């Protein structure tokens, strides 16, 4: 069973940058698509972006050009580089792994962007 542990969240001013990490255990990291999601207070969880096994990335419109997803298969780690942060980016950020019917989630890391 995969375990995912996010880190790197915190408080940042609007316009600032933050890099989140998601460390995985287990054996299927390299064969999995990996994604970031977020959930703001009082809102439903939303998909932020995904990186395929081959490294192809896709993002939701609201973060395009500001967020970058990458993966290091040797370290079994997923990253989310966030720049030009806005107060609307405030949320708990979750990483997610999908391989076939198997889905794993991390516990989340809080990102707070102050205006």
Characterization of this structure:
The protein has 115 residues and is an all-beta fold. It contains no helices and eleven strands. The strands form two sheets. Strands 2, 4, 5, 6, 9, 10 and 11 form a seven-stranded mixed sheet that branches. A hairpin with a 5-residue loop joins strand 5 (46-51) and strand 6. It is globular and about 40 Å long.
Keyword list:
7-stranded mixed β-sheet, 4-stranded antiparallel β-sheet, globular
Mean pLDDT: 95
Which radius of gyration do the C-alpha atoms yield? 13 Å
Strand content is: over 45%
Low-confidence stretches: none
Q: What structural class do the secondary elements suggest?
A: mainly beta
- The count of strands amounts to 11
Q: Count the helices. How many?
A: 0
Distance between the termini: 40 Å
Per-chain topology:
Blueprint: E1 4-7, E2 10-13, E3 18-24, E4 33-39, E5 46-51, E6 57-59, E7 67-72, E8 77-82, E9 91-99, E10 102-105, E11 109-114
Parallel strand pairs: 2-11
Antiparallel strand pairs: 1-3, 3-8, 4-5, 4-9, 5-6, 7-8, 9-10, 9-11
């Amino acid at each position: 069973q995969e375990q995912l542990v996010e880190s790197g969240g915190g408080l940042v001013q609007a316009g600032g940058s933050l890099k989140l990490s998601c460390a995985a255990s287990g054996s299927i990291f390299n064969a999995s698509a990996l994604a970031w999601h977020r959930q703001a207070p009082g809102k439903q969880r939303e998909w932020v972006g995904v990186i395929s096994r081959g490294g192809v990335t896709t993002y939701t419109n609201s973060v395009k050009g500001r967020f970058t997803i990458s993966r290091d298969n040797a370290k079994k780690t997923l990253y989310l580089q966030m720049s030009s942060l806005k107060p609307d980016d405030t949320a708990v950020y979750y990483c997610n792994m999908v391989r076939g019917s198997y889905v794993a989630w991390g516990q989340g890391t809080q990102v707070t962007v102050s205006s």
